[in-house]
């Protein structure tokens, strides 16, 4: 390997079987220019993997394109640029994101949100390697590597008519699925230490905190773990982070466990469990309270996006709407 490039998968922290496999995929993907599709729940590391693929063979630029933000009358021009006078207000020619990525990598983030009008143009780009700026007569040739990512089930989106089947087939040839964090618990301590070290190498977690992190289900995946560590770092009273510093979602989780499920505590770790973990079962939070809390957390984490919040919670959208009403939550 060219040492100047460094190890491409360096930034992908993890030692689980799944992550080792993903590192191998990253190396393979980097050797060819075929499109790559990254699938996985929110916060599983799709962008981390996209950047690692690019860094393995860093030709040209890495241009992230937020497909959800490509809306309205200017979306085509954002993506493909326009010529001077293409429309009222087009006083000068503009280079689109695609052209910025010429010779490099275009990362279509949340490809499942790309409007159908743009999907057909992206397909042409992939097949013919050409595009046409808004108002231009001629097509321009372009050489880009496309990496696309989505948290959506694209097959389902195809069935619903929201995503073009031909584009899906074109993209899915090289698919990498990012596993949920809860399905690779081996990575939890490594990631936690990685995020801690980013702040201060002297910071440590108590054994009880480690066990709490391991037993939680992480609906927001690595992003949630990262936020959790950052919050604990901000609230710490010493370099040893205690269970009392854990965010509320983990508190609820710990409290909802039966006493025998509370992290098997060695004498050294027992005392730093928060009080409520030692409360008698009668004062455990009501299921409804926990549910309401989980819904609020999911909405907070998805910036109020109900569809994604429902997905995080593993319930249908209609169920979420019903519960929002029931608990009088206004996202
Ligand atoms: N394997 C990993 N190693 C190091 N950091 C990671 C890893 N996976 C995720 N992260 C970190 O977790 C956060 C979320 O990752 P990322 O943005 O890549 O997720 P995503 O799958 O794109 O999520 P979303 O669908 O919500 O956009 C980022 O801050 C990222 O740095
Ligand atoms: Mg992302």
Outline the fold blueprint.
Elements: H1 17-31, E1 36-39, H2 46-56, E2 62-66, H3 75-80, H4 97-100, E3 105-109, H5 116-128, E4 130-131, E5 140-141, E6 145-150, H6 154-159, H7 165-171, E7 175-177, H8 187-199, E8 204-205, H9 207-215, H10 221-235, E9 240-241, H11 248-256, H12 267-270, H13 287-301, H14 306-313, H15 317-326
Parallel strand pairs: 1-6, 1-7, 2-3, 3-6, 8-9
Antiparallel strand pairs: 4-5
The protein binds adenosine-5'-triphosphate and magnesium ion (MG).
Question: Would you mind describing this structure in some detail?
Answer:
This protein is α/β, with parallel strands linked by helices and 331 residues long. The chain folds into three domains: 3-179, Rossmann fold; 182-283, Helicase, Ruva Protein, domain 3, CATH 1.10.8; 287-326, Arc Repressor Mutant, subunit A (Orthogonal Bundle). It contains 15 helices and nine strands. The strands form three sheets. It has a five-stranded parallel sheet with strand order 2-3-6-1-7. A two-stranded antiparallel ribbon has the order 4-5. The protein has a two-stranded parallel ribbon with strand order 8-9. β4 and β5 form a beta hairpin. The longest helix is centred in the first third of the chain and has 15 residues, at 17-31. The relative contact order is 0.11. Mean pLDDT is 86; it is low at 1-9 and 260-283. Bound molecules: adenosine-5'-triphosphate (ATP) and magnesium ion (MG).
């Amino acid at each position: 390997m060219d040492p100047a490039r460094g190890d491409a998968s360096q930034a992908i922290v993890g030692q689980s079987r799944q992550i080792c496999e993903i590192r191998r995929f990253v190396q393979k993907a980097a050797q060819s220019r075929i499109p790559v599709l990254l699938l996985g729940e929110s916060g599983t590391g799709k962008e981390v993997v996209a950047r690692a693929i690019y860094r393995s063979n860093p030709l040209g630029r890495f241009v992230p394109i937020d497909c959800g933000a490509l809306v309205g009358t200017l979306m085509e021009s954002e993506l493909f640029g326009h010529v001077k006078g293409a429309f009222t207000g087009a006083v000068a020619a503009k280079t689109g994101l695609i052209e910025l990525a010429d010779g490099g990598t275009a990362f279509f983030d949340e490809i499942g949100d790309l409007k159908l009008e743009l999907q057909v143009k992206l397909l042409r780009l992939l097949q013919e390697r050409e595009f046409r700026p808004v108002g231009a007569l001629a097509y321009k040739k372009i050489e880009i590597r496309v990496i696309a990512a989505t948290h959506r089930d694209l097959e389902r989106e195809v069935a619903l008519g929201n995503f073009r089947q031909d584009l899906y087939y074109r993209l899915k040839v090289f698919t990498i699925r990012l596993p949920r964090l809860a399905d690779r618990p081996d990575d939890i301590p490594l990631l936690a230490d990685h995020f801690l070290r980013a702040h201060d190498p002297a910071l440590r977690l108590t054994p009880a905190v480690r066990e709490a992190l391991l037993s939680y289900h992480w609906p927001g995946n690595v992003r949630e773990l990262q936020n959790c560590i950052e919050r604990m770092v901000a609230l710490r009273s010493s370099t040893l982070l205690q269970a009392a510093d854990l965010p509320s979602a983990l508190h609820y989780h710990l409290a909802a466990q039966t006493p025998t499920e509370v992290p098997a505590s060695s004498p050294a770790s027992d005392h730093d469990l928060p009080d409520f973990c030692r409360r008698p079962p009668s004062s455990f939070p009501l299921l409804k309270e926990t549910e309401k809390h989980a819904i609020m957390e999911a909405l907070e984490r998805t910036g109020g996006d109900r569809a994604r919040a429902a997905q995080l919670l593993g319930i249908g959208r209609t169920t979420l709407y019903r519960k929002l009403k029931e608990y009088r939550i206004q996202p």
